[in-house]
Amino acid sequence: MTEALAIDDLHFDYGQKPAVRGVSLRIAPGDCYGFLGHNGAGKTTVMRLCLGLLAPAAGHVRIFGVDAQQRRREANGLVGAVIERTGFHQHVRARQNLIALARLQGMPRRLAHAEAERVLDATGLAGAAHRRVATFSMGMRQRLGIAQALLGRPRLLLLDEPTNGLDPEGIAELRALLLRLTRDEGAAVLLSSHQLAELEGLCNRIGVLRDGAMVVEGDLDSLRTQVGMRHVVAGQPLAALRQRLEQLGLAPVADGERLLVDLQQRPAAEVARALATGADLTMFAPEQATLERIYLRAHRDGAPAKPTDGQPPRRPIIATPPAEPPAEPPAPQLGTTSRPLQRAFRFEATTLWRQRASLPLVLLPCAIAVFAVRAYAARVRAGLALVDGGERFSADDGSGYLAVAQALQTATPVLGLALIWLASQTIAADLAGDTLRNSLTRSVRRRDVLFGKLGVLFAFGFTGWLLLVVTAMVAAAATVGFGDLEEVSRYGDRDVLAAAADVAPTMYLAIAQMTLPLAAVVVLATAASAAARRPARALALALVVVLGPELLRDSFGEAAGWLLTSHVPNPLRDDSALGYLAAVARGAADALWPFADLAVLAPLCWLAAGGVAVVAIVARMRVA
Asked: Among 441, 410, 357, which Cα is nearest to 73's?
């Protein structure tokens, strides 16, 4: 039979502390596998390793024969998961969250909408689909987490404490849903829970972890046979019944108003006759081994050696031998593993568009540019009025090129700060809100998600820069026009200070050159986001990485051209192409672009360094 999940000798350490030690298990289609263990036993860590949220130190994970480390897209295309906290974008409606994840999974638009409605109905959230997730109760968020795990009809479900926050009705509905998925649809389920009673009648296989090592793993019926059957004894007086059992060499255990006893090798009829002599025996019946007994025996008899004693852990009790892995995996039932970058880009673009702060971040620099152009035009009019009134000898009559240069000098730092803020939050906010996990458990790899985020940030930055330039040019054309910059004297003489034909090429060059430093800002801030992992720390680190070197400018001397801030205008100085444009547009004879020779090379080096850093950090990142 094809194995849905095969884990072999899996190891993982949190620093110096072993968290998973040689875990192996097998799950077949149709199995509901109960994953048991105390808090910190390693259950959640094993699930994260299966999903690629953590990288194993050793061992292998195969999902329907797919090597989950080597072929992450194909493996995750077959899996749905709920891991600890359910993470969704709080300001987005429940239905929109699910549709975006379905589209990331590779479903066409109509199918994504239909699939979202199906899972909402299956989890009892159809009536709340229009509500924002921020308004959901804990139980509703847990239902929504289960709903996203069901998207695409996955062949394998990994459910980590899925009943957390659910009321009794919700627990009963989940049990019925899982029974239908396993028995009727042949799905496989790996289910961890602290509530053993919730797993009774649901799981046909179990595994018990202790201190990161498997101590029991196998078929539930076989394990029950190994643990053995107890008999329930009740009657009056209970003390006499206990004494009679002890005389037979048995060890009864009190359980309220009854006794529980393992008959060992004694015939049940013989024990019953002995108990009925001299006592009122009202109950003598066999009791099948429960999950609780299996669990407690595993912790008593099958406990592995401690990680610090230098000995390898004991081998787990295995009730059935593992099957051989299959050769070929099945295809996902819904969705696709193709075009991962396109799907990741679309998902990140949708997420960014729904953020309330994204539009103001684009419009604020444009508004500043309009204000700067209008202020420049007002100064030109004031100067000409002074000339007409005889209070000044001469004044320039204004130039759209100079207006654009000054507007861009004022607004570009604001756009840069907006990009720093946005890029510094792109990974850190997803980690803090537990939303990155939902992306990484789809049929995409980490680098697909990363490049999707970078692609959207580049598109946002380019769009913001383009809108800023167009806004400045339109405002300048409407106020002062794009003609020659001329000096007008009180006698009406006009001298050309800067010819439009000479300034225009410089303006287009400066506009094009600014795209590289802004792209470098995006990549560096994204790397800071991945490194810091928390939004506030990520913003602080991004500011330090991008702007911090400017504080050490004097120590760089002639090498200051390698600073990224040398190619972006800032309130302290402007050695960028925009500063050169402003000087040329004023008609300055000594117009100078100090670092023209590094205008391309320096930003490219920062861009490359940031790219290498963010790829390396994300590849090794632990996603909780």
From this structure: 441
Cβ neighbour number for residue 552 with a 10 Å cutoff: 10
- Report the alpha-carbon distance of residue 514 to residue 603 in Å, rounded: 10
Which amino acid would we find at residue 35?
F
- The domains of the chain are located at 1-78+156-227+289-320, 90-153, 230-287, 340-619
Amino acid (one-letter) located at 464: G
Long-range contacts of 556-565 (CB under 8 A, 24+ apart): 560/595, 561/594, 561/595, 561/597, 561/598, 561/602, 562/598, 562/602, 562/605, 563/602, 564/517, 564/520, 564/521, 564/524, 564/602, 564/603, 564/606
Q: What angle do CA 181, 185, 187 make, to 5 degrees?
A: 60
Q: Which residues pair with 214 in a beta bridge?
A: 209
List CB contacts of 597: < 8 A, sequence separation 6 or more: 561
The closest alpha carbon to 614, from 524, 527, 538, belongs to: 527
77-102 pLDDT tens trace: 899 999 887 889 989 999 999 999 99
Q: Which token pair is 529? A: 């986001």
Q: What is the pLDDT of residues 549-567, one digit of tens each?
A: 988 888 888 899 999 999 9
* Predicted TM-score (pTM) above 0.90: no
Q: How many helices (H) and strands (E) does the chain have?
A: 23, 18
Rounded CA separation 523/452 (Å):
13
**CATH of span 1-78+156-227+289-320:** 3.40.50.300
CA distance 385 to 570: 32
* Beta-bridge partner residues of 205: 33, 219
Q: Which residues contact 391 (CB under 8 A, 6 or more apart)?
A: none
